[in-house]
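Lab notebook, bench 4. We co-purified these components, and the gel suggests they stay together. Before we commit to crystallization screens, I want a quick structural picture of the whole thing.
Request: model the full complex, all chains together.
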Amino acid sequence: MLLLSKEEIKEIFSMKEAIEACKLAFQTFSSGKSIIPLRTNLEIIKYNGTTLFMPGYVEDFDIAGVKIVSVFPDNPSKGKPSVPATMILMDETTGEVCSILDGTYLTQLRTGAASGAATDILARKNSRIGALIGTGGQAICQLEAMLTVRRLEEVRIFSRNSERVKSFVKKAQTDLSYFDTSFLVAKSSDDAIKDADIITAVTTSKQPVFDGSLVKAGAHINGVGSFMPDMQELDEEIIRRANKIYFDSQEAVLSESGDFITPLKNNKIDKNNFVGDLGEVINGDLKGRESDKEITLFKTVGLAVQDIVTGTMIYKKALKNKVGQNYYFK
Ligand SMILES: NC(=O)c1ccc[n+]([C@@H]2O[C@H](COP(=O)([O-])OP(=O)(O)OC[C@H]3O[C@@H](n4cnc5c(N)ncnc54)[C@H](O)[C@@H]3O)[C@@H](O)[C@H]2O)c1
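Here is the predicted assembly.
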C-alpha cells in the first residue's frame, strides 16, 4: 500500500494536471465508463457534522476507491479542517487496497480543479476580474484553479469574517505570487462580484451569499458550497438569469443541493436553462458558451469519480517518481 501525504502529492502533481484529471473524470462519468453509486450521507447531529462515503469504480483504470469525507463546520474552532477526508484506492484486478492518500488535500485539489475545468470550458477567454466568496479550507485551491485557466488582473475576495479575509489575502499574495494578479479584500460580497467575469462561491452558507441581479452579462459562476437541501449560497435570481446551467451531475445536484432544491420546490425557477452535465460538453454532446453576453453557471456537489481519477493519476505518478511510503500488513 502506498501512503501519500499532502506534501508528497503537492511535490509531484500540479493544479494544471488536476484540472485535466477532472475533465477526464467528468468525461468518464458522462460516457458511462464508471460505476458511481450515489453517496451515503451519515448525519452526526450530536456534533453538527455529516460523514459521507463516496465509492466508485473506473473501468479504464481498473481502479475502485472510496473516499471517506466529513463536513464538520465547527472543526475550525478546534484547529481542525471543516472537511477532513481519507482516500482509499483499490486495484480491481485483485480487489486489494493499493494506496491511501491524504483525502483532505485531494478534496481541496480536485474541488478546485472541477471549478477550474468548468471555468476553462465556459468562461470568456478575455475574463479579467475574478471574485471569490468564502475563504475556508477549499478556497486557496479554488483561487489557484481560477488563475490557472484565465489570466486575471485582479481577484476580489470576501467572506463573513473580515480578519480571516485579510489573512487569506496575505496567504494568496505569498503562495500565488507567481500569477502576477492583485488580490483585494472586498467590503461586501456584492462589491466583490460587481463587474466580475468569474465568480466562485465556496461557503457553508444557508442563505444566498451574493445578489444575482448584480452579476454582469457574460460572467461565469461556480457554485461549490451547497451540498445539502438546507444549504444555499446561490439566489434564485442568478439561477433564473443564467442563460446556461451545467452540473457535475444534474442528478446528484437535484437530489442534494438547496441551491436548486429550494427554489424548484417553491416554483421560483424552472429547468429551461439546465443544459446538462459538464462531461457531456467535454464529450461534444452538448454545447457550451455560445456568446460573450451569456451568463454561464456550473454547480458542483462533488463526485467520487473525481477522487478516483485524480487519486489514480497521483498514485501512478508517485509510483513512477518513487514518492510516498510503502506499508505492508505483516
Ligand atoms: N462541491 C464539492 O465537491 C465540494 C467539495 C468540498 C467541500 N465542499 C463544500 O464547500 C463548502 C466550503 O468548504 P470549506 O472546506 O472551505 O469550509 P470552511 O468551513 O473551511 O469555510 C467556509 C467559508 O464559508 C464562509 N461563509 C459561510 N457563510 C457565509 C456567508 N453567509 N457569506 C460569506 N461567506 C460565508 C466562511 O466565512 C468560510 O470562509 C462546504 O459546504 C463544503 O461541504 C464542496
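The pocket of nicotinamide-adenine-dinucleotide is lined by residues 71, 73, 76, 82-83, 107, 111, 133-139, 159-161, 202-205, 207, 209, 224-225, 227, 300-302 (CB under 6 Å). Worth comparing against the SEC data before the next meeting. DSSP finds eleven helices and 16 strands in the chain.
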